Amino acid sequence: MNTRSLANLMSSPRPDSQPVAITQANIVTWSQFNHDVSQLTEQLILSKHLRWAICFEDSYYFAVAFMAAAHARRHIILPGNHQPAALAELSTHFDAILHDGVFQHNFDKAALKLPVSDTEEITNFTHFAPLPLCDIRLTLFTSGSSGTPTAIEKTLDLLDAEITQLDATWGELLSNSTIASTVSHQHIYGLLFRVLWPLCAGLLFERFDLIYPEQVMAHAGQNTTLISSPALLKRLTDDQATTSYRAIFSSGGPLPPSAAQQSLHLFEQLPFEVFGSTETGGIGYRQQQETTTPWQLFPSIDMALNAEGCLRLRSPFIDPDNWYQTSDQCEPLGADQFMLKGRADRVVKIEEKRISLTEVERRLCQLEWIEEAAVFPQEETNRLILAAVITLTKQGKATLSDMGKGKFWLKLRQELRLWLEPIGIPRRYRAVDEIPLNTQGKRLIRDLELLFKQESKEI
Questions:
Q1: CATH classification for the domain delimited by 6-173, as one of 3.40.50.12780, 3.50.50.60, 2.60.260.20, 3.40.50.1820
Q2: pLDDT 10s digits, 180-193
Q3: Mean residue pLDDT across the chain
Q4: Beta strands 137-142 and 150-155: pairing type?
Q5: Could you give the C-alpha distances from 148 to 6, 85, 113, 143, 429, in angstroms and in order?
Q6: Model pTM?
């Protein structure tokens, strides 16, 4: 593929008829995209506002707003979602909002809705100068486990370096395919894989999310690439195999082995899992043949471990000159592969003993009755205990029904004693159909805690 840098994406010529984005109704061409970016760039240059929040459901208009804000040298703000209260919480970070009508805000901010006009005349901008990527700022938000949004600021040269790496890794595989997605472009994974990389590589992308498993099944095709997450891939329970995708990507959280195997059954291929974060960008990738499949480090990244066995990175997606310390505990396998062992910040001390929440979750998921588990510390009568939210396999549901809650709870504790000290075994459980995730595919402690107020679901 003839992939361009973000710096010269708009300043390099392309055929006017080259497709950019698609819906069931129509295809938007490069000439229309060039026109729409030109028109909005002019408006933003004339505006006094410097920090623009970009809030779109339509990925095409999102791309227009992103590139226009960059060429107007504005600071781009990407809120995690469009809910009025969430936007109000972040309102000190931006001066104005670009949107496509996805929200109704009731706070004092200027807003501009796209499309900015309905003119059918398409005229090109006089000249798009190459972008000084290191001078254009982008702010994203990560919620972590607490749910409190944390602003992460980057410059566009860091994103451009990652696009270059993604294209070097998978560009040939994705050549001439259409990008369909179940994940939001408001977060770094969707931003890169769904919008910016396709734009730079000249790939056609779908304008709207695939929301339901049925849509994911219906979109499968040899000329389509799916950008997805564990949250949706684990919901693909259809037993009927379908047409293969060109490729499937998953990020945002751990992909259950059963979901990887179901993808193999349905689409004749394993998803490419991408490991990383908002702060770090991509770190590594794998196709999960089994749970012990190692992660492959992206070639442009150097890794090392600190004294606690946590991953250190020197990455062009963070800072090419300095090392960045993560909380991800790893086991190196040579110079460019590693195994994840959990996060250091997921170790809690209970009665003077250090307990790894990741280890407890792993042991729960080894049991034939449990599909997924989320374990967290909880205060109970002036002492700290562990609580677990679990989803059950078909066998687990049948066993729970046969044994009853009390005996099933005792059976779980008995099995866990084979690996865990009594203090490290969860004392409280909730069985749910699906572990709640936020829009970034993360588990929030506050959401898990709410489940324990629903007494009817207690095991």
A1: 3.40.50.12780
A2: 999 999 999 999 99
A3: 90
A4: antiparallel
A5: 31, 13, 28, 5, 25
A6: 0.85
